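Exercise 7b. Backbone tokens:
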């Protein structure tokens, strides 16, 4: 972000969107498009340790990687369009616009005006969408001015669907829907509903992709997340409110919390997504290595001691860390749902014995 003078989100989103060839199809004026991206980028709060423009750019990059390297675009014969893939990138870019650096739960507990406005339901996600579309009501940001009405309705529906799906309360619902699909599903013409499900899961997976990055990058993002979490916990404590889970700097074991996050949220999501996008097995490989790193007894015991002293910090990288070695060892993964179930059965039997 430093090298591009703080324009990481604007430049990356513009580059990726141009490569989708959808700007012409949507009759989007390039000047207005660039001005909108500049305004969206400016709308991210740079004083947030985590939810700032660099995170948004990272999610755009992740979504683009899934679509391009993961060859999701090659599924066009099954119904995907350039316009729909543009909406994936746009949704990723705006998904945390004007984020205040606190959770939905905090806004609800403090009776924040946004919580009142959105009736305690997907408060932040609803705000991100509404604020950007309100921004586009201004003439200089109205990129869809010349887009056909029917196409605009499709685009808006998709953006709303994807950004709302980043609400963690929707995680298990969407993942459950994905897991109901069998292996023959992808060989068929995908319905609009099915494509929306996949696109939503792509943006959601990119949003929570930190544990699936190479360990050095993962640790940098983890540091930013816990800074923001602990800052909210401090505010809750000062207000006399119950401190939200994982946000109490005096009781949260970083290593154990990361292990739990991977086991409960990330592993089921990425295992399911890797059946649709096989290249995501590379992400799963990093995830497995990172889980092993956090769960090592030395890391866990040190974090426990630091927690008791109130001096928690992230552990250093292993001396022998090499991303290429991680992939070589951990890329030997089951590829289909049947293989995954067989592998899980083998682990269960091994644990029993």
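Sequence design result:
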């Amino acid at each position: 972000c430093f090298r591009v003078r703080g324009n990481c989100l604007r430049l990356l989103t513009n580059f990726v969107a141009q490569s989708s060839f959808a700007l012409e199809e949507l009759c989007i004026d390039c000047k207005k498009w660039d001005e909108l991206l500049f305004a969206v980028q400016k709308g991210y709060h740079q004083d947030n340790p985590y939810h700032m423009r660099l995170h948004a750019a990272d999610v755009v990059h992740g979504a683009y990687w899934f679509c391009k390297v993961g060859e999701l675009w090659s599924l066009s014969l099954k119904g995907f369009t350039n316009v729909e893939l543009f909406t994936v990138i746009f949704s990723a870019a705006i998904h945390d616009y004007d984020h205040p650096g606190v959770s939905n739960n905090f806004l609800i507990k403090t009776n924040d005006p946004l919580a009142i406005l959105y009736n305690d339901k997907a408060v932040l996600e609803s705000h991100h969408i509404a604020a950007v579309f309100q921004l586009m009501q201004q003439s200089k940001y109205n990129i869809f001015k010349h887009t056909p009405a029917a196409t605009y309705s499709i685009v808006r529906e998709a953006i709303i669907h994807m950004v709302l799906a980043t609400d963690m309360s929707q995680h298990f619902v969407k993942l459950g829907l994905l897991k109901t699909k069998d292996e023959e599903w992808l060989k068929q013409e995908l319905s609009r509903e099915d494509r929306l499900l996949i696109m939503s899961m792509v943006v959601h997976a990119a949003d929570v992709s930190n544990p699936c990055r190479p360990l050095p990058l993962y640790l940098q993002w983890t540091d930013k997340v816990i800074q923001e979490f602990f800052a909210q916990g401090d505010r809750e404590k000062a207000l006399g409110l119950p401190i939200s889970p994982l946000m109490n700097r005096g009781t949260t074991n970083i290593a154990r919390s990361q292990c739990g996050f991977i086991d409960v949220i990330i592993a089921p999501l990425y295992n399911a997504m890797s059946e649709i996008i096989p290249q995501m097995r590379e992400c799963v490989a990093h995830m497995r290595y990172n889980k092993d790193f956090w769960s090592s007894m030395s890391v866990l015991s040190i974090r426990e001691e630091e927690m008791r002293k109130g001096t928690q910090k992230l552990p250093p990288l292993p001396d022998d860390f090499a991303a290429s070695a991680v992939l070589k060892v951990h890329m030997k993964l089951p590829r289909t749902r049947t293989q995954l179930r067989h592998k899980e059965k083998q682990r269960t039997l091994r644990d029993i014995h």
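Instructor comment: The CA atoms of residues 92 and 219 lie 22 Å apart. The radius of gyration is 21 Å.
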